[in-house]
Amino acid sequence: MISFTVEDQAGNRQRIEAPDDMGLSLMEVLKASEYPILATCGGMALCATCHVEILEGKDGLGDATDTELDQLENLPEYFPTSRLSCQIRIGEILEGAVIKLRGEDVV
Hints:
Its cofactor is [2Fe-2S] cluster. By secondary structure, the protein is of the alpha+beta class. The chain has one domain: Roll (Ubiquitin-like (UB roll)). It is 13% helix and 23% strand. Strands 2-1-5-3-4 form a five-stranded mixed β-sheet. A hairpin with a 5-residue loop joins strand 1 (2-7) and strand 2. The radius of gyration is 12 Å and the shape is globular.
């Protein structure tokens, strides 16, 4: 199990624990934790409705792919630490990270 913190759009923070041996994406864990992530495309990096900002712990994640960057660059709000949660796999790299929900499409 790994744990990380999620900050919602109101600024409330909650610690989340997730299994790191199931190949889940961050998007899947956020949805399972009942965060309002649309994920319209189902995790294919085609819609950017799972946009998050990595506030702490971004160093281990590596760079976004070109497909991911194409979607992020079309958002009204795009930050240097923006990522699509569907493209981040749950693993040790997220231990202790702080993730902020972003995007106007969050319901």
